[in-house]
Write a structure and sequence with these properties.
single chain; about 150 residues; mainly alpha; Cytochrome Bc1 Complex, Chain D, domain 2; 2 domains; two-stranded antiparallel sheet; about 65% helix; about 10% strand; elongated; binds heme C
């Protein structure tokens, strides 16, 4: 009986150790993610969260979600353009119809990239990454287009 109790105790100790270690790792990863996206988080709160909400869920029928958005995942260049040029007219996001107006987002190429990297990593939009150079190319394309 005593032996059984000490085995149980040992198992309990092992389980809690595993728990503590895995908690430690996941909170470490979370912290690392926060540091990596510090600029994106701040910019998102300032420039997007009023409409799309802090958690990216938006407001159904009014402001489309950025959380697990099929629109975001579908086309990388298109969402860069949404930020650079704004968006209006009818769109369907995750099966819900929207017909609103979003104005172009002010910011440097780096800031736009930071916001998009934050959205794609935190809001479950897969592993897309955005470099400031990609933003610059699309910005350049539009400025040529509009001056022609
Ligand atoms: C004033 C409100 C407002 C703000 C601020 C705003 N948006 Fe939007 N956004 C909208 C609306 C409205 C639409 C849908 C436009 C339409 O119906 O054509 C939209 C559409 C989008 C879409 C495409 C649809 C989707 O949900 O996947 C993305 C991506 C997006 N916004 C990202 C952002 C990001 C990132 C920011 C901040 C940098 C931002 N928006 C700031 C109102 C806003």
């Amino acid at each position: 009986m005593k032996k059984l109790a000490s085995i149980a105790l040992l198992m309990l100790a092992f389980a809690s150790l595993t728990y503590v270690v895995s908690r430690g790792i996941s909170s470490y990863q979370k912290k690392e993610n926060l540091q990596k996206h510090a600029s994106g988080i701040v910019l998102y709160e300032q420039r997007c969260a009023t409409c799309h909400q802090s958690n990216g869920e938006g407001i159904s029928g009014l402001y489309p979600p950025l959380q697990s958005s099929d629109y975001v995942v579908e086309n990388k260049h298109r969402i860069i353009n949404v930020l650079l040029q704004g968006l209006s007219g009818e769109i369907i996001v995750n099966g819900v119809r929207y017909n609103g107006v979003m104005h172009p987002v002010p910011g440097t190429d780096q800031e736009i990239a930071d916001i998009l990297n934050y959205i794609s990593s935190e809001f479950g939009n897969g592993e897309m990454t955005f470099a400031k150079e990609e933003i610059a190319v699309l910005r350049e394309l539009h400025s040529n287009h509009s001056s022609n």
